[in-house]
Amino acid sequence: MSTPRQEPERPIQRSRISGIDPWRTLEALSFYRAALCVALLALSASDYRPPYFDGPQAEMLDGLLYVYLFLSALLLIIVRGQQPTAKWQAAVHIGSDLGILIALVFFSQGVASGIGALLVTPVAAGGLLLSRRFSVVPPAIATIALLGTEIYLNWKFPVYAENYTQTGMLGAGLFIIAITGNALARRARESEARANRAQSDIAKLAMLSENVIQKLQAGVLVVNADGQIELLNRAARNLLGAGAASGRHLSACAPTVWQRLNHWRQDPSALTNTALSLSNHQSAWAQFTRLGAGSEASALIVLDDASRVAEQAQSMKLASLGRLTASIAHEVRNPLAAIQNAAELASESDTLGSEDLALLDIVKRQSRRLEDTVTSVLNLSRKTTTPASNTELRPMIDDAIHDFAQRCEAPSPHISCSITPPNLAIAIEPVQFAQIMNNLLGNALTHATEPGKALEINIEARISADGNQALIDLFDNGPGIDREAAKHIFEPFFSTQHSGTGLGLFITRELCAAAHGDLQLINHREAQRGAYFRLSFPAALTGP
């Protein structure tokens, strides 16, 4: 079993941890040292100086204090420069304090002078700055030095009073201070480490939440009780406009949302089934949630783009259409196969005349066309496409016009066609293109025919300016399409006639998309009032 990896023990913390900055601690120790020297020198010069300042060692004590003061100033300058490292400066500071203070104890008649108590400060600093192992070194040195001083003074001066008990108690106190200070510092470091980990986790969660909120398709706002926007995501900014920003009042950038929010605050149970009209000509559905309790609680507002909701509804319609077409295929294909077989058998009869054979030929041709249409619709619902080769436009358009003319009742519309260049081609199956053209021509016949006026349908095919697209324009001389209907004309099940299914243009556009093309409603051509549709497919050329 592997043993856990132990971190190497460091004598001193080199950076700010839990509020314990080694540089600031050393700087404070330098100021304390200088203040202590000034206080002791002032005490030495006063009338209330202790007896040891009048003894034979008085000059030595004063000299040590001046040296201590100079050392304090020098160490303060070095600390301000932060060179060398804090580790070595801490060792110099604590070592200097121990040396000078123990010398003062020696020349001031031992521990009984009370100067030994000043060792508490450097020992405590060592407990805070040094590691657990090294934190007991300063009290150990101080205790040994104090005991040595007492032993020497008792040996050198027989009249000197023994102070071993006081020295032992002072040494024990220094150890307690060092160990306690180090334990507090260690606990502070552990608490800071936990706090840093928690802060890091909170920052990660906040960043994750912000990223999730920013990437939501729905607009999210947080508004305080005064109406100030505290937070909004990208979708909300797109819905409300560029003027929406944190810190602005909601009424300034979205007055309708602000009004609805006030109504909701007065009666949270009130529901509305109408979308809000926004200032940038968009509409959205709003949901409100209270964040917290009390009248000062902020409100969470979720804005759903009404157009996106409509797209979701359309997706549901598409799913219904897929199920519907699958059901129709089973219902249509079996009787259609029976019709085709009956037509084939009837055409083999010797008793039929030329007129009957012509009628059977129409039945067989239209049955095949109906079967191809059902297959195209099934492929559309299954989202399956078959790779197609480039096919010249001219024969496909001519065939579509011929088939359409046969199905039309008199009077048939006048259809003109121009293709530039003549060998323009697109990659699509002829059956699929025929269905597209028949749907568009049939749509024009149904909606553009006006009483007492001959219907004219013009087809113009050309290459786009960049040479990449084949553009096929179909326009008529009918009344055109009003703007409100134009907004929904490609939606499934939308029809302006009670007898219509609303699937013709939708299926036509989807068939174009399956061939990597597109169908657009340009609606009004210049100087003409009729409907104007444009087909676009990747262009190709055939022949020389």
Explain this structure to me?
- Helix 3 packs parallel to helix 5.
- The chain has helices spanning 22-45, 58-81, 86-107, 120-129, 137-156, 164-215, 234-240, 250-253, 255-266, 306-347, 354-382, 393-407, 430-448, 483-486, 504-514, and strands spanning 219-223, 229-232, 276-277, 283-291, 298-305, 390-392, 414-420, 424-427, 456-463, 469-476, 518-521, 532-541.
- Strands 6, 7, 8, 9, 10, 11 and 12 form a seven-stranded mixed sheet that branches. A five-stranded antiparallel sheet has the order 2-1-5-4-3.
- Helix content is 54%, strand content 13%.
- The chain is of the alpha+beta class and 544 residues long.
- The protein has 15 helices and twelve strands.
List the topology elements.
Layout: H1 22-45, H2 58-81, H3 86-107, H4 120-129, H5 137-156, H6 164-215, E1 219-223, E2 229-232, H7 234-240, H8 250-253, H9 255-266, E3 276-277, E4 283-291, E5 298-305, H10 306-347, H11 354-382, E6 390-392, H12 393-407, E7 414-420, E8 424-427, H13 430-448, E9 456-463, E10 469-476, H14 483-486, H15 504-514, E11 518-521, E12 532-541
Parallel strand pairs: 7-9
Antiparallel strand pairs: 1-2, 1-5, 3-4, 4-5, 6-8, 8-12, 9-10, 10-12, 11-12
Which keywords apply here?
about 550 residues; alpha+beta; seven-stranded mixed β-sheet; five-stranded antiparallel β-sheet; about 55% helix; about 15% strand; disordered N terminus
Portion of residues in beta strands equals 5-15%
Helix content: 40-55%
The number of helical segments is 15
Overall pLDDT metric:
77
User: Cα distance, first to last residue?
Assistant: 80 Å
What shape does the CA trace take? rod-shaped
Poorly predicted regions are: 1-19
* Biggest sheet architecture: 7 strands, mixed
Element order: H for helix, E for strand: HHHHHHEEHHHEEEHHEHEEHEEHHEE
Strand elements, count: 12
